């Protein structure tokens, strides 16, 4: 599998012959100015919640790629108004696609839409794809409900917010890895705005001291999972 980072919480997973794009926020992110948005391809776009830094490019990229949008019903209702036509509505539960399984799980956050409307429940995703189990937490604080994931999955990777203020910080993310028993983390949702800036060396050192791996790919970088 391949992981390509586009900044903030936007990334692409490639596996099982499919391209899955998450939380598209690129053109409004100055740190992602060198990303060639026109070259992005996707079969599915998964949206964790309705905030602008997760859906700003949803309409544009869904139309460009012809992707099917997977999101909460309230986000889908808003997206339909933006002219998007292909959807798979979900809520907290599991669905098996022809390429793998998606479970939407609880995230402790808020969710409103760019027009001010209600964005439904914020969520994360657990994917079973290409023989791997990958957890994307979405925007969330540390929550005891993460512990249930250890009863269901043997996670290979967790994609976690680490910027603090709106979400978990590095210390909380480390605690979370003990809740769901996963030692390999890809950090997202940091450094985009001053309030979520972190010292990446300190973050890497903290994970290393706990014998855990924190991956912080550069924007535009692709890594193998």
From TrEMBL:
Pfam families: Lactamase_B_2 (PF12706)
NCBIfam families in alphabetical order: PRK00685.1
GO MF term (any one): hydrolase activity
Similarity remark: Belongs to the UPF0173 family.
Keywords: Hydrolase
HAMAP family: UPF0173
Name this protein carries in UniProt: UPF0173 metal-dependent hydrolase GCM10008119_05910
Domain of life: Bacteria
PANTHER family, per database record: UPF0173 METAL-DEPENDENT HYDROLASE MJ1163, UPF0173 METAL-DEPENDENT HYDROLASE MJ1163-RELATED
Organism: Pedobacter mendelii
Gene3D superfamilies for this protein: Ribonuclease Z/Hydroxyacylglutathione hydrolase-like
Boundaries of every Metallo-beta-lactamase domain copy: 7-189
């Amino acid at each position: 599998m391949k992981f390509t980072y586009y900044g903030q919480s936007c990334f692409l997973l490639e596996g099982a012959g499919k391209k899955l794009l998450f939380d598209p926020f690129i053109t409004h992110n100055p740190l992602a100015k060198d990303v060639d948005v026109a070259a992005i391809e996707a079969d599915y776009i998964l949206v964790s919640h309705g905030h602008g830094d997760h859906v700003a490019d949803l309409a544009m990229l869904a139309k460009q790629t012809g992707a099917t949008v997977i999101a909460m019903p309230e986000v889908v209702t808003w997206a339909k108004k933006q002219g998007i036509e292909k959807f798979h509505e979900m809520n907290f539960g599991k669905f098996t696609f022809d390429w793998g399984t998606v479970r939407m799980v609880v995230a402790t956050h808020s969710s409103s839409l760019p027009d001010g409307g209600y964005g439904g429940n914020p969520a994360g995703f657990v994917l079973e794809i290409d023989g791997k189990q990958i957890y994307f937490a979405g925007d969330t604080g540390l929550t005891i409900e993460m512990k249930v994931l250890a009863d269901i999955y043997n996670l290979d990777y967790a994609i976690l917010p680490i910027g603090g203020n709106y979400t978990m910080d590095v210390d909380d993310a480390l605690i979370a890895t003990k809740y769901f028993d996963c030692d390999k983390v890809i950090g997202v949702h940091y450094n985009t705005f001053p309030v979520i800036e972190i010292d990446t060396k300190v973050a890497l050192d903290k994970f290393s001291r706990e014998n855990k791996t924190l991956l912080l790919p550069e924007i535009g970088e692709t890594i193998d999972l």
